[in-house]
Structures are given as structure tokens and as C-alpha cells.
Amino acid sequence: SASSQSVHRATTTAPVNIAVIKYWGKRDTTLNLPTNSSLSVTLSQRSLRTLTTASCSANYPAEDTLNLNGKPQEIQSSKRTLACLSNLRALRKSLEDADASLPKLSAMPLRIVSENNFPTAAGLASSAAGFAALVRAVADLYSLPQSPKELSRIARQGSGSACRSLMGGYVAWRTGELADGSDSLAEEVAPAAHWPEMRALVLVVSAEKKDVPSTEGMQTTVNTSELFAHRAKTVVPERMNAIEAAIRDRDFPKFAEITMRDSNTFHATCLDSWPPIFYMNDVSRAAVRLVHDINQAVGRTVAAYTFDAGPNAVIYYEEKDEELVAGTVKAILGADTTGWEGPFYEKLANVS
Ligand code: 2P0
Q: pTM value?
């Protein structure tokens, strides 16, 4: 038939999300089920995003392929990518089984081409945007009717944090309780329009690949840190409630304090791991001190830092404090001669 000869194609982008309550630790390493809920802010795709095209054709060579930033990837050895693709294929297959007039896309090899506009694996949530874009692109290619929340179950299996990049605004990933992970899903807590003044300043202090990959680092923490269980069981549930209330009330000082404290607690569990894991460096710590200095000098909390599994900082603030926060941070850290290894660049992002 004509459709079996042709190439079917869908292109999409997915945004980066930056957690304010951090995901760190799995209770199931195959399904990527977390030990604690997390909450993130989705950044504008004008700043950081993954662009992905998924296509399929009966004429393609038999194996699915994935190309990332111009380099072919070994997907046959990537259980996570294979899990995402087989879940998506099964959903397409059930559509085809129900409607014989649909082209049999599920039987065709897939070709996925993906590109980040920012450094990969430098602690800038590249796997989050990457797997979210992969899932969205293939779901579009297959015309799947599933909601973003339902697709988050699939993206989660690619990379935990990816489930939060299928939605905009303020997004919670609930741990869920079921062993099969069917209730471990992301959901929008508030749309970007609820708090449109929110801004993020992304400070790239190093675009190097991080020392300890997240997947490995969090397992070391789960297995060796005594602080970890306390954070997961007691600290995070309280903070999830508190930050959701802060978002609801658009209470920036509250939002900021919880964000900074949770970043610090996460990095404390890394330091408490054995052997200890260091993601922040001297430059990161200079950014921490500067944010506290700015807040103290202004006499109210106008800025909040957060750090992921790498030294780069993200600083949240409100648009009215742009000059005060972004201006000061760029002037002081951008001119720093003691700690920077470069490249130093910054991106201003709206929530979107
Ligand atoms: C987060 N991070 O909530 C936390 C904060 C890093 C620090 O999610 O093993 O790449 O693929 O599920 O999602 C990084 O972990 O880990 C991460 P996997 P992922 O954003």
C-alpha cells in the first residue's frame, strides 16, 4: 500500500525542568520508581530544549535507531529507551487492532533524531528534556490519544525526571504506592500563567560531563547514607505540602526558602554517601553565598539558588527583581577571576 512505502514523521520539542524539591533515590531501579515525590518548574523552550524528530517506514533497515546531537546511540543496550519504545508501540498496536484502516506503524522500524541546544549530561536536565521529547515525538507519530499525565508513566521509565517535562508550569511527580508504577505520575500543580513573574537564571559554570552520573549516584546514596531515609520519609513530604501552598499563594520568600533548603539537603545526602559524592564546587558555593548576601542586603528574600547533579546554578527570582538579582549575579560572578573555569554563560528563562 502507499502508506507502507512512505515515511511517517513527527517533530516536537520538550523543555528542561529544574526541580525545587529534588528527586534522588529509587525504590525500583527498573521502573524508575522514586523514594520521594518531587516538584519542578518547567523552563521556557526559548532557552533550553530538546528538538526531536521521530519517523518510521517499512523501508527502513530492521532495527530502530536513535541519533543524539549527531551521534548514533546504542539503543539495543539501553533498557530504558527500549522500554519507552515498546510501551509506545503497544499503545499504537492497540489502536491498529481496533481500527483496521490505520497504517500499521507499530510494525515499522523507528528512526529518532534528537538535538539539545545546551550541553548534554552536564547536570542541566538533558535526560529529562531528551526522554520527554522522545516520548512526545513517538506519541505524536503514532497519533496516541493519551494525556501528558498518562505519557509521563512512559517517560519516567526513560529517566525519572523526564516525566516532569511533559507539562508546563509547576509540576509534581508523585511517588505513587503501587509496585507496578502505574500511579507514579507527573501532574501539573499550577500552569505557568498562575505565576508568570517567575524567572530562572541558569548559570553554567562547567559544561563538562559530571563526575558521577545521577543514576549511579542516587543508588550509592540510597545504599549508604543515613541522612537519606530521613530526607525521603520526613523532610520531603512536609516540603511538598509547604511548597505547593507557596506556589498557590505566590509567596516567593516561602518558595525560595524551601527551594534553597531542599537543594542543600539533597547535596548533604550526597556528602553523607559513602564514598561521598560532590556535585557542587567552589564556584557553586560562591553563588550560594552571593544569593544569601543579596537577600540580606535587600532585607527580603528576592532570590533562590538550586543545584542538581552538577556544579551549575539555577537562580529563581521574580521579574520585578530582575536588575537586583540577575544584574548583581552576572556582574559579580561573571567578573569573578578566582573560581571560574568557564565557559560561563547564562540564560534567562521564563516559566512556560
Ligand atoms: C531532579 N535530579 O529532581 C534531580 C535533582 C538530579 C538532582 O532527576 O536515573 O537523570 O534517569 O531516573 O532523572 C537526575 O536524575 O535519573 C535528577 P534517572 P535522572 O531533577
A: 0.94
